[in-house]
Automatic annotation (TrEMBL):
Domain N-acetyltransferase: 56-129
SUPFAM superfamilies: Acyl-CoA N-acyltransferases (Nat)
Organism ancestry: Bacteria, Bacillati, Actinomycetota, Actinomycetes, Kitasatosporales
InterPro entries, sorted: Acyl_CoA_acyltransferase, GNAT_dom
Organism domain of life: Bacteria
Protein name listed in UniProt: N-acetyltransferase domain-containing protein
MF terms (GO), sorted A to Z: acyltransferase activity, transferring groups other than amino-acyl groups
Organism: Streptomyces lacrimifluminis
Gene3D superfamilies xrefs: 3.40.630.30
Amino acid sequence: MTPRTRTDVVIRTYGTGQVPPLLDTIADIWADAHPELVNNPGASTDGLSVAALRRQVVGHLRHEGFTLVAAYTHGTMVGFGYAFPCTPEYWYGRDLLADIPEHVRAGRLMGLCELAVSPSWQSQGIGSRRHAE
């Protein structure tokens, strides 16, 4: 099945200082998009909980170039994703770094950390548009 592409979706980009007021909204979207984690008590011990997501986002706000991209329809946020420029050492870690080809390690790297779309808005091209943005 080919995903439908919505034309009534507005994409907005936010920098570090603009994200804290959005934390509740993105946490709700993430929870809705990941019910298998939210409803699994073991997930929280693995760091896969709403509280862990909040800590992760707040921790990543310190990275210069942090960008959150949000999708809105009818004034309501229905999806988000965020990323930040980082070094190969940071992204891959010391244990994997030796296995990463040199041309990848030498290039620019943007760490894409989360992409989530509310279930009722999935398969409509929203995630693809945010990723491209």
